[in-house]
Specification:
alpha/beta, Stationary-phase Survival Protein Sure Homolog, Chain: A, two-stranded antiparallel sheet, 23% helix, 29% strand, binds manganese (II) ion
């Protein structure tokens, strides 16, 4: 097992408590290399830096910081920085949940998606709790969970999205395999005027509500379970494929 190479990245920056906890947990599973953004890059989704050069700085033994996005980090690590292709890419532990529709905005999940696109199995891990202090306590549970998740080969084009509930690790009810739930934000768009009387908009805050079946990721977290969702990269709506083929689209 110790021969496995593990790339660890995130979207909160290489200094975050979450990535340090994940790297520490991963050390029992193989040789760990950290390539992560040099600053917070949350909600950058799958963005790629094309119009600026990227710089890499050594930030300690096996730790490199990139002035780019999580996706940039994975591309640089696999294409240039690591001597060997890693056996697995771990992204996180994100400070905050990545559940349901939010996976589409998540830099944490995007890094795991990029690894999957490049053919390397990947797991994204997020803690559904904004409390900085609770992060380090999760190391043992995450190490045991990863050990189990990495026993089998993941199918192609598939990554695992793991969320940890906002309780102490010893209060976890168990591990549940889940589907993505749905999330709606209410009142999260603010329209106001700046001191010069010019209109501006601000996205964020407000209330959110979730829904989803009994097997949804939101419900698992709500009931203090660890949620493990297999995500597939193919967004094709196969149920609609046949129906759409029947439409007259001739121009
Ligand atoms: Mn983040």
């Amino acid at each position: 097992m110790a021969s496995r190479t593990i790339l660890v990245t995130n979207d909160d920056g290489y200094l975050s408590e979450g990535i340090r906890t994940l790297a520490k947990a991963a050390r029992g599973l193989g040789e760990v290399r950290v390539v992560a953004p040099d600053r917070e890059q949350s909600a950058t989704s799958h963005s790629l830096t094309l119009h600026n050069p990227l710089r890499v700085k050594q930030r300690g033994e096996g730790v490199q910081a990139v002035d780019g996005t999580p996706t940039d980090c994975v591309i640089l690590a696999l294409g240039a920085l690591l001597e060997h292709r890693p056996d697995v890419v771990l992204s996180g532990i994100n400070h905050g949940p990545n559940l349901g529709d939010d996976v589409l905005y998540s830099g944490t999940v995007a890094a795991a998606m990029e690894a999957t696109i490049l053919g390397v199995p990947a797991v994204a891990v997020s803690l559904a709790d904004r409390e900085e202090a609770s992060m380090a306590a999760w190391g043992g549970v995450v190490a045991r969970l990863l050990e189990r998740l990495l026993r089998a080969d993941l199918p192609k084009e598939t990554l695992l999205n793991v969320n940890l509930p906002p309780v102490a690790p010893e209060q976890v009810a168990g591990v549940r395999v889940t589907t993505l739930g749905r999330r709606e934000y209410v009142g999260s768009l603010t329209r106001a005027q700046d001191p010069n009387g010019r209109e501006y908009f601000w996205i964020g805050g407000g209330e959110s509500r979730w829904w989803g079946g009994p097997d949804s990721d939101f419900r698992a977290i709500h009931e203090n379970f660890i949620s493990v969702t297999p995500l597939h990269l193919d967004l094709t709506n196969f149920a609609l494929l046949q129906d759409l083929s029947g439409w007259d689209l001739s121009l």
